[in-house]
Design brief:
By secondary structure, this protein is α/β, with parallel strands linked by helices. The protein folds into 3 domains: 109 residues, Rossmann fold, CATH 3.40.50; 81 residues, Helix Hairpins, CATH 1.10.287; 145 residues, Heat Shock Protein 90, CATH 3.30.565.10. Helix content is 51%, strand content 17%. The two termini are 48 Å apart.
């Protein structure tokens, strides 16, 4: 056993006989196994409470807290720690009882040092194998989830395309009919018909629902359609200003205060302006929805030699911690059914992945959220190139 392995898997030697304990510790040290020492069961538990310990060599017969009581306390508080019991030559039953209580193995005194060193190595090996088994199990779980997600998204892509095209045709008919009805109601001879205002409100609801359905179908098609990147030199600050211009009415209607900490007058990056604009629209749209009237949205642009970071921070309702891991999933939305499609952040994440960018979110309920977008400043070779 190499000394560096011993540092990774600390060893404790517990015996109330100082001369015996020191002699065993010295002889183990010559073999690269340098143990911590404890003269009692309680001292052993104190060490385990302060240090991650892998293996304990524990004498059965000790005054005060005996070896069996110490073993049971170790297995209760530190179940991953392996314990090797040391018993008297004539009391093998103690060793058997120890194994039943969870000990790794037992040896009888007087101890053969090579036998003890080999037993310690076997205990270390068991710990490593158990750690590898857990790692493999976690990896397998992640791989299975990834496969399920991949299959689900592939099926979603096929289904989305069909649904989007099928919905668009009746939407066009509904939109045309609603427009015709609006024109009829606007004519002079229809000004005095009963419940005209109610009919107009009904048509407005139809129009709102049409726009919502169109938004859903466009986002469905947007996430499955393979688009060629049209990258060029882009001033991210100018692009941000243009995007704010598109959302000017929504900002004005809620009297939102926009705080800009954009640094330089220009910030050039190599990217696809159309896809980045879609990202900005979706994120700003979310921020506008999140804040109350007269709320605040803060935009911060920071640049380094390699990338540009854009923070979109609002003082709105915030996102519950239980939802943070799901907000980029397709069709997940905390908004009412008639308001949220659950595709906006999914599309944002997909676009940024394609552009070799990243997005992170920090949020506190009642305090607001901050979405942080990072984009490479220069052309980079990513998985889609």
């Amino acid at each position: 056993m190499k000394e560096e392995e011993n540092r990774s898997y600390p060893l404790v030697l517990v015996d109330d006989e100082d001369n015996f304990r020191n002699a065993i510790a010295r002889r183990l040290g010559k073999r690269g196994l340098v143990p911590l020492q404890a003269s009692s069961g309680q001292a052993c538990l104190d060490i385990l409470g302060l240090n991650p310990v892998a293996v304990v060599v524990l004498d059965v017969k000790m005054p005060g807290m005996g070896g069996m009581d110490t073993l049971k306390a170790i297995k209760q508080r530190h179940p991953g720690t392996q314990v090797i019991m040391l018993t008297g030559a004539g009391v093998i039953c103690d060793g058997v009882e120890g194994i039943k209580a969870g000990a790794f193995d037992y040896l009888t005194k007087p101890v053969e040092i090579e036998h003890l060193a080999n037993k310690i190595s076997q205990a270390f090996d068991m710990i490593r194998l158990e750690a590898e088994r857990k790692t493999q199990a976690r990896y397998r779980e992640k791989l299975e989830k990834k496969m399920i997600d991949t299959e689900r998204l592939a099926a979603l892509g096929t289904l989305s395309t069909g649904i989007a095209h099928e919905i668009n045709n009746p939407l066009a008919v509904i939109n045309e009919s609603a427009g015709f009805m609006s024109q009829v109601l606007a004519s002079p001879e229809m000004q005095s018909i009963p419940r005209r205002d109610a009919l107009i409100k009904g048509l407005e609801k139809i129009d709102t629902s049409i726009q919502r359905a169109r938004k859903i179908t466009l986002q469905l098609l947007g996430h499955v359609k393979k688009q060629e990147s049209a990258c060029s030199q882009v001033d991210i600050i100018q692009l941000l200003n243009d995007t704010l211009g598109l959302l000017e009415k929504e900002i004005r209607d809620k009297d939102i205060r926009m705080v800009r900490e954009t640094g330089p007058a220009a910030c050039m990056i190599w990217t696809d302006p159309y896809q980045v604009r879609q990202v900005l629209i979706n994120l700003l749209d979310n921020a506008i929805d999140a804040v109350k009237e007269r709320g605040t949205i803060t935009l911060t642009v920071l640049e380094t030699e390699d990338d540009v970071r854009l923070d979109i921070e609002d003082d709105g309702m915030g996102i519950p911690e239980k939802n943070l891991g799901k907000i980029f999933d397709p069709f997940f939305s905390s908004k009412p059914f008639e308001e949220g499609t659950g595709l906006g952040l999914f599309v944002v994440h997909k676009i940024l992945s394609k552009l070799n960018g990243k997005i992170d979110v920090q949020s506190r309920v009642g305090k607001g959220s901050c979405f942080r977008v990072s984009l490479p400043r220069h052309e980079s070779s990513g998985p889609d190139k």
